[in-house]
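Repro:
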Amino acid sequence: MIESDRELSAMVQELWDNDVNRFKPGKDYRISLQGKAGDTMGINDNNDGAGYPLFTFVDENLFKKETFLAFISLLDNYVSDTGEPEIVTPEEVAENHKFLDAIIRSPTMKLAHKYLVEKHLSPKDETQFKEQLYRIWFELYARRGSSKPDSSGFEHVFVGETRGGRTVIGFHNWIQLYLQEKLGHIDYKGYSVNANSPQPDENKHILALQFSWKDGIKPKGSIFIGVSPEFEFALYTLCFLTSPNERVKVQFSFYDVEIVCHHYNQKHIGTTYPVLLKYRKPTE
C-alpha cells in the first residue's frame, strides 16, 4: 500500500472503532443472502437468485437515534428520475441542516473534521465546515444529459436515482434499501461475486448485490450494511477531500476495500461506494 493509503486506513479504522451507532449483524439486523444473482438483467427475468427479501429482521427501535431519524427524514425529499429538476423547499433545507447538525456532533464526524483541519482541507470553524459539507453533498447539479439541476451527491449515493426509468443509478445505502424493500419497491435478486471477489458473508458489513427498484434494475450495487449514516458520511467526505484519485484502497477491521469516489466539477460528490477486495484478519 502506498503511504497515503496507510495513513487514511488508520483514520478509517478510528472512524470504524468510534462508530457507536453501528448495528450488530445477527443481533440488530439479519440478512438472507440466498443465491447468486444472474448475469443478465431484466425486471421479470428468470435469473433471480433470491425468492425472498434481503432483510429478514431489523431492530427499528435503533432508527430512533438522532442521526438515523434525521437521515431517514431526508429520504423522501427527492424525485428519483434524472432529468426531472429537483425543487428544494425551505422545509427540506431545514431538514438537511438538521441532519448535518446531528452528524457533526457524532464521534466519527468529529474525528474526520479534526483530521481534515490538520490536513488544511477543511475549515476549523464548525459553521464553515457545515457549509463545506452542504456544498459537497446537498448542492444541486445537472447530471449527464440534463440541462437543469436534477441531482446531488446525497440523492445519488444515499437515496438512488433512475435513468430513463429503466436503470437504477447510485443507491448505495442499506437503510434506504431496507425501507424501500419493506414498502415492496425493492426486489432483491441475489448477491454479486466475480472471480476475484470474496464470497459474501451475512455477518460482514459490505455486500455486492443486484436488485430492482420500482421499474428499474441495478445490475450491480455495492453497499455497507449496518453502519451508521455518520460513518458513511465521514468516510466518503474524507475520501473526497483527501484523495485526488477516484479510487482509494483502505484497510480496516476485517476488510480490504476500495472506495470509489467520483468528483463532479471537483466541488461535489458524483458517486461514492465501497468495493470489497478481500477479508483480512484485523491486526490487534
